[in-house]
Amino acid sequence: MKRLFSSALVVAAVAGAPAALAQRDNIGIVGSSTVYPFSTVVAERFGRAGTFRTPKVESTGTGGGIKLFCAGVGVQHPDIANASRRIKESEVADCRRNGVTEITEVLIGFDGIVIANAAGAHHYELSLRDVYLALAKDVPNPDGSETLVANPYRTWQQVNPALPANPIEVLGPPPTSGTRDAFAELAMEGGCKTFPWIKAIKDSDESRFKAICHAVREDGAYIEAGENDNLIVQKLAANRNALGVFGYSFMEENADKVQGSAIGGVVPEYEAIADGSYPVSRPLYFYVKKAHVGVIPGIAEFVAEFVSERSMGEEGYLADRGLIALPPAAYGKAAAAARALTPFSL
Amino acid sequence: MSDPQPQPPRRATIDVVRAGLGRRYRRERRFRAYGLLSVLLALASLLLLFTDIVDKGVGAFRQTRVQLAIHYDPERLGVGARAAAQELAAADYEALIKDALHERFPAVASRAERRALARLPSSAAAWELRDRLLDDPRLLGAREKVWVLADGSVDAHMKDPGASTLGPLQRGWVDELAQAGELALRFNANLFANGDSRDPELAGIRGALVGSLLTLAVTLALSFPLGVAAAVYLEEFAERNRWTDLIEVNINNLAAVPSIIFGLLGLAVFIALFGMPRSAPLVGGLVLTLVTFPTIIIASRAAIRAVPPSLREAALGLGASQVQVVLHHVLPNALPGMLTGAIIGMARALGETAPLLMIGMVAFIVDVPGGFTDSATVLPVQIYLWADSPERGFTALTSAAIMVLLGFLVLMNALAVLLRNRFEKRW
User: Fold this and answer.
1) Which regions of chain A are under pLDDT 50?
2) Which of A154, A228, B100, B153 is the residue whose CA sits 20 to 30 A from A219?
3) Of A230, A234, A302, A321, which to mutate for an interface test with B (greatest number of B Cβ within 10 Å)?
4) Domain coordinates of chain A in residue numbers?
5) pLDDT at A1
């Protein structure tokens, strides 16, 4: 009896599959975990309005998402990919090989990366050079010669006499994270480039330049705290000596617990990130597969909702969630291109 | 041996024993104390875990509601006095809430302050009003006091004013409302009625729970019959030779393979090759079948081996065929052990996240899944997603979801123990 019942279940389950293959009535979104909090808010509101089903949003990371997105045209492939960096030429080529030729790029805003510590502790004022010297695996020899030595600095004061004598202890994301990529590219490389002889390497040997500038020390001063930014915030509250690296939206939500360090003299605040004066911020995008518009119901409407004033605008609900909105001119351009679903080329 | 030698004065055995007795007793007591200490240590860490989870999660079972005097004014809603349901569904309910708030706090004038005031109720409050009016269209034009959902930040302030993210103005309003009894903590029905949401006050575990049940149904339906059949064949029919040894080694190996590898396999085979939908409980169940299948085979084989050979021999001696021996005697006697193995395998499947990542079940899904091919997520994935959300309210929700998951695990394991105690025979 039990067996009969079980087999019936299996048959029912397997028989259900082909029906789902023939069509899909919800939008499939994949990609960056940084864009996920914004994409999901729009998806939920879009679904609640009642005309279309709520889109499904997967948090796969930018690279993984674009790979899925570029795998082909058809209902089993996602319709939209979120990205916390611009799509790469190699990825566009991959898309083209699989028949995904027309892609619309939508720039939705910016995300700041903050270096924060517990509220009430010493408020750091760092330069990008300080950040690089404190966290790089190998740093230029302190004696001034053009050679690299393993990072000798133990305290912030050794890095820069103006800083306090606290030990260097920074909690941050692991190498698999998009936040870490952006941090390495914007903060570490930014500080690294201030040494003219290292900057000169970039032209002669780009991969060596990246190895010097992006490698983070592994002697315990930089602690990989996992992808969970909430965890970093909790640890900062418990350890007043430590600094943490995470996204701006988490700092905004925990403004009572942590304070963002000034970088290059600019404190991470909404306005400073929006006008680009805060140096460690990155653009956020999503990409739409044009071949699916009209096949999967609601894609054009979802994009229109995403780029609407009440969502992506300066006073929109995404700004409430920590998205740094685009300046008005850039917003107008991005929204118009998105509504028309203009295909882009790199 | 034969010639007697002068012997040293020997102590009697009993004296030796007595002299060492104290030491032996102490050693025994120490040994027992070590065991007891390990148990206590395990219990203490479990207790620590539970108190932490319960302490953080208990708040999520209640949520703040705010009482508003709503006037269902057709003019403000932008509909006629006898509007049809479709018209009512699309009406502007936020205007009603703004009016009610403005009436309650007439002194608030500036645009920025009004915006701050309008943020006190949840964005879902408008949907609650819509549903009320759709249920009872006679309310149109009437006035009533309604308890609507408060925003997550107000909820956080009510539960722990120390960790509040509200501005001073909002705090003033909230305190005034609370003192007037127009702000209160109620049971959080959304937690059990809703799917996921990005608003902590709206998010619920129903979607993940249904997803888990659907996935486990597929897993059980496939892995139990397959596992039992494989075990019966290997124990009762297969010859002992190099091939069965090889199979045995492979099954044991499979049980120890990290589950993420099964996820990769699922992605390559079920989704890429067979074209099954991503994020579906069907695929999740198939992948988890691979995870639990070896466990069930191993447990079932042990259960079959525990059936005494005398039983088989007696049946054979009375003229039963091999199949009759298996179906009439071995299986019924081994079933409790097999079920226990299956339940423990299911409990493992319930807690898996890694393989589901690869097949797209780590996703934001609002709608509660209705079938095996709908997009769905599962309980542990929901916990992971909430733990990673920036909004404050999700900390409590995460712990609440862990409590529900632990509840299910305890239930399943208790069932396994019950089955064993109830039906297990000793020979």
Assistant:
1) 1-2, 4-6, 8-22
2) A228
3) A230
4) 25-111+282-340, 112-281
5) 45
Q: Is A227 on the interface with B (CB under 8 A)?
A: yes
Inter-chain touch B367–A48, beta carbons under 8 Å: no
Domain boundaries, chain B: 66-186, 206-423
Measured CA to CA, the distance from residue B54 to residue B74 in angstroms comes to 46
Do the beta carbons of residue A145 and residue A274 sit within 8 Å? no
Q: Give A75's DSSP letter.
A: T
ipTM of this predicted complex? 0.77
In CATH terms, A112-281 corresponds, of 3.30.70.1290, 3.40.1190.20, 3.40.190.10, 2.120.10.80, to 3.40.190.10
Annotation: CATH topology of B206-423: MetI-like fold (1.10.3720)
CATH of range A25-111+282-340; options 3.40.140.20, 3.40.190.10, 3.20.20.140, 3.40.47.10: 3.40.190.10
Q: Which residues of chain B lie closer than 8 angstroms to A57, CB-CB? A: 363-364
| pLDDT single digits (tens) B207-226 | 999 999 999 999 999 999 99
Nearest to A58 among B198, B362, B391 (CB): B362
Would you say B56 and B386 are in contact if contact means Cβ atoms under 8 Å apart? no
Tell me if B221 and A50 make a contact (CB, 8 A cut-off): no
Identify all chain A residues contacting B198, using CB atoms and an 8 Å cutoff: 37, 40-41, 44, 321
Q: Which two tokens stand for residue A242?
A: 């430590």
What token pair was written down for B227?
């596992």
- As a whole number of angstroms, the distance between CA A132 and CA A160 comes to 12
